[in-house]
Design goal:
heterodimer, A: 335 residues, alpha/beta, 5-stranded parallel sheet, 11 strands, B: 6-stranded mixed sheet, 16% strand, vWFA_dom_sf (chain B), ChlI/MoxR_AAA_lid (chain B), Magnesium chelatase (chain B)
Chain lengths: 335, 562
């Protein structure tokens, strides 16, 4: 059973980023920078346990939604007596060293050998459709896999042309990556695909460290009681998420906020339009999460570091970190 | 009773909570620990994991070869399934591939509940994958402090399974405070380490059938769990641990990279506990702390290196005859294509009334091949001596950073050796991380004599060890070629010159591609002579700046300027 989301000590920025990406999946995933053992995957898994179950065709290997059944390779639309069912939102872990076959899907060997049929066995991308794809140590992932993921994340569908098979199926997922930049850099093209990025550290404060130990100890001694203790706090977050999702289309985007976003992006030198777009979407999603009617400057400020941190042009000889640069620009522009 | 044996005892009681142990360096005690664990786990599954295990065997799947010959599906269980709740011993863990490590880590996170024992005989630079050492509680290094083995081993046993359900003695608030203090003082960032320490603490009290935790327990945990993970030496008022500084050089500042870590008051820590922690910090930790973190082996296929044929991943090449074993995948279409023309003949051989089915023989099997590219590695060997040291080093540093900034294009790693005074030093082990390089290159020492021979030997050695790991090294030497320190660290221009030429000739034998860049204002014949002896290119770049050096090296190594 996953650790309750609300019981995670500290890490407010990471929790906020994950909630924002859950309110608006189009923002395009979260990249978490940080050392090992700072609760990155704990938080990601905890989030997936909070999401309300989704409607899917029962037994479909591609998690296809009822409205897209006609595009499903398993021909869900043509089957008789197809039922839809509520299934949990998938959370797929992509291990380091996974082969292309496992990610994309491959020829179903069993059916090929046993019955001489040429059939497709879906891979991790199909399992992650409409859910989360979590990649630990994404900076150590092999290049050809990275390219492949970029392609699928951009197009929203997985196209397989190998081993004499020709299959395409929808694959839309929220990408959550984690890695430690000291062990290898991430390519800018890949970084740019992530909507938000956060930096996590284990709390450097005595009280919080003690609290981490206390909670983990309680979980080990009596898991059921621990879960019950936090169930209420988690339920509140579920409510907030559901409300935010519902309110999102109606959150207004005043002209002043748009101007703020553009000014900020120009001031910090964020490359490309994607930065501004993400900044706006994130501010709107955060406003929805907060229950606000329109996205204001304060919402923009709260999400600016996570939306822009990984998009700044890197000057090799400039030593200042991007977070510092964004904070400086925020103070200069908005006081 | 020794720490390692006690740790093994706790591990046997609660494998799921403690993850496992990392045993570094051969010793009699290590053998004793392994024997003890084998005994403890006698009634649970025990498996040894060969480092080059393939994915099918590790995670289970279809056994293709037997399925084919039997004509029906034959499954094989994965080793990770088989060993659930038992003991998984990994010899030669420092050679483990990323794929295997990733799978094991995933199984541990999913609660497979086995005890992982990493056996590691690696050198300084070689450690098991960090993703696994991170997930085992106890780090026992027998190579630095070969402990005396205690003959008695009347280890009491916690009833098996009790430990996993969160049994153990209650951890009091002050004990938690002590642990949090130690982790802060040692700069241990991972919360896992702290939680392992907490579990080990409560179990070690329970094993003695005590219901409260004593200082002995805390010291044991400090020695086995926390001390070895230190990234910082706590400030001690009385006696700072004397690091053995190499001659004629200041010791690197402890790795306090961010100003926000306030120094924690060591007085909050019991002196005894602090002493236990300090005693358990490995000898080489200071050096390691100086350079950031212990080096990790990078995984992942690189770019402009030599191409290696691989059976697992990369760009697909054609199929070739072979059995689908050891990670090779069956190329089914090609197999069928080979078998089809023979069907009629084979059926006739069996007789006319033979059943109509596909007849595939062993010789028809084809496996898929992929092209995997070895990673390129650029080794800078920089002459940091004398008056031009600072300028030359600054340019080399700039070139390193520029190359790393480009590395996502070229998929290359960079390393930097500086030679000055009487030694050559690996300042930056092979890395692809700009962040890390910046940290290390921030403080570069300069000045002193020119031990050119030592510098060339160090570069050759690094190039060879890296080539053995499948990388393609390229060495760029920045010097004026005028060595004045011989290979024994003695001054003397004549002897030094001979030694340098000898080292250059030895370098030539290794066959490593190299370039000698002479950045003195008026190029001298000595550097050209060294380059000739190394069978390397020679480039005179007076007044070269970082960009010029980076462009020259890239052009030679990758065949085009960036």
């Amino acid at each position: 059973m996953p650790f309750p989301f609300s019981a995670i000590v500290g890490q407010d920025e990471m929790k906020r980023a994950l909630l924002i990406s859950a309110v608006d999946p189009r923002i395009g995933g979260v990249m978490v920078f940080g050392d090992r053992g700072t609760g990155k995957s704990t938080a990601a898994r905890a989030l997936s346990a909070l999401l309300p179950p989704m409607q899917a065709i029962a037994g479909c290997r591609y998690n296809c939604a009822p409205e897209e059944a006609d595009r499903c390779p398993d021909k869900c639309a043509e089957k008789k007596g197809v039922k839809t069912a509520k299934v949990p939102v998938p959370f797929v872990d992509l291990p380091l060293g996974a082969t292309e076959d496992r990610v994309l899907g491959a020829l179903d060997l069993e059916r090929a050998l046993g019955r001489g049929e040429k059939a497709f066995e879906p891979g991790l991308l199909a399992r992650a459709h409409r859910g989360y794809l979590y990649i630990d140590e994404i900076n150590l992932l092999e290049d050809h896999l990275v390219d492949l993921l970029l392609d699928v994340a951009a197009s929203g569908e997985n196209l397989v042309e190998r081993e004499g098979l020709s299959v395409r199926h929808p694959a839309r997922f929220v990408l959550i990556g984690s890695g430690n930049p000291e062990e290898g850099e991430l390519r800018p093209q890949l970084l740019d695909r992530f909507g938000l990025s956060v930096e996590v550290k284990t709390p450097q404060d005595l009280e919080q460290r003690i609290e981490i130990m206390r909670r983990c100890d309680a979980l080990e001694r009596d898991g059921a009681a621990f879960a019950a203790d936090w169930a209420e706090a988690d339920a509140k977050i579920v409510k907030r998420l559901a409300k935010g999702k519902k309110a999102l289309p109606n959150v207004a985007m005043p002209e002043s906020t748009l101007t703020d976003a553009a000014t900020l992006c120009m001031a910090v030198g964020a490359d490309g339009l994607r930065g501004e777009l993400t900044l706006m979407r994130a501010a709107r999603a955060f406003a929805a999460l907060e229950g606000a009617k329109s996205a204001e400057r304060k919402h923009l400020r709260a999400v600016a570091p996570m939306a822009l941190r990984h998009r700044l042009r890197r000057d090799v000889l400039d030593e200042t970190g991007s977070t510092v640069r964004i904070d400086r620009a925020l103070t200069e522009l908005f006081g | 009773m020794s720490d390692a044996l006690l740790a093994a005892d706790l591990l046997a009681a609660a494998p799921a909570r403690l993850g496992g142990m990392w045993l570094r360096g051969p010793s009699a005690e290590r053998d004793a620990v392994l024997a003890f664990l084998a005994e403890e786990f006698a009634d649970r599954p025990v498996r040894r994991l060969p480092v080059h295990i393939d994915e099918e065997r590790l995670c289970g799947g279809i056994d293709v070869a037997s399925s084919l010959s039997a004509g029906r599906r034959i499954e094989q269980a994965g080793l990770l399934e088989e060993v659930a709740g038992g003991l998984l011993v990994v010899p030669m863990a420092e050679r483990m591939s990323g794929m295997v490590a990733g799978r094991i880590a995933q199984a541990m996170d999913a609660g497979a509940g086995f005890a992982l024992v990493l056996i590691d005989d690696g050198g300084e630079e070689e450690v098991p994958p960090v993703s696994l050492t991170e997930r085992v509680a106890f780090w026992c290094d027998f190579s630095t402090n070969p402990a005396v083995i205690a003959p008695e081993s009347d280890l009491s046993r916690i009833p098996e399974g009790l430990g996993n359900t969160g049994g153990g003695c209650t951890v009091a608030a002050q004990d938690r405070q002590t642990l949090a203090n130690i982790t802060l003082a040692l700069g241990i960032d991972s919360a896992r380490a702290m939680l392992f320490a907490q579990s080990a603490l409560s179990l070690s009290a329970q094993i003695d059938e005590r219901d409260s935790i004593t200082d002995d327990d805390i010291q044991f945990v400090a020695r086995t769990v926390l001390g070895p993970r230190a990234t910082r030496i706590p400030q001690q008022a009385e006696e700072p641990p004397p690091p053995p500084p190499p001659e004629g050089e200041e010791e690197p500042p402890p790795g306090d990279n961010d100003g926000e870590d306030e120094q924690h008051d060591p007085d909050q820590l019991d002196d005894l506990i602090l002493a236990a922690v300090l005693a358990s910090i490995p000898k080489d930790v200071l050096a390691r702390i100086g350079e950031g973190r212990s080096a990790r082996r990078a995984t992942g296929a690189g770019g402009a290196g030599r191409k290696r044929a691989s059976q697992m991943r990369g760009r697909p090449l054609g199929a070739r005859p072979g059995l689908p074993r050891g990670g090779a995948r069956l190329a089914l279409i090609d197999t069928l294509r080979t078998a089809v023309p023979w069907q009629e003949i084979r059926r006739q051989q069996e007789g006319m009334d033979a059943p109509r089915r596909l007849r595939i023989r062993k010789g028809d099997l084809r496996i898929r091949r992929f092209e995997e590219r070895a990673e390129a590695l650029t080794i800078f060997a920089v002459d940091a001596s004398g008056s031009s040291a600072l300028a030359r080093l600054a340019e080399a540093k700039g070139a390193v950073e520029l190359m790393l900034a480009q590395s996502y294009v070229k998929r290359a790693q960079v390393a930097l050796i500086a030679f000055r005074g009487t030694s050559a030093e690996l300042l930056l082990p092979p890395t692809r991380s700009l962040t890390r390089a910046k940290k290390v290159l921030g403080e570069l020492p300069g000045g002193g004599g020119t031990p050119l021979a030592l510098g060339l030997s160090a570069a050759a050695e690094l190039a060879e060890t890296q080539a053995a790991r499948g990388r393609t090294p390229f060495v760029a030497v920045l010097t004026d070629g005028k060595g004045n320190i011989d290979r024994n660290g003695q001054p003397g221009r004549a002897q030094a010159g001979e030694d340098a030429l000898a080292a250059a000739r030895r370098f030539a034998q290794s066959g490593t591609q190299a370039v000698v860049i002479d950045i003195s204002a008026r190029p001298q014949p000595e550097a050209a002579a060294i380059a000739a002896a190394m069978r390397a290119r020679y480039l005179a770049l007076p007044r070269a700046d970082a960009r010029g050096v980076e462009r020259a090296v890239s052009a030679l190594q990758f065949g085009k300027a960036s």
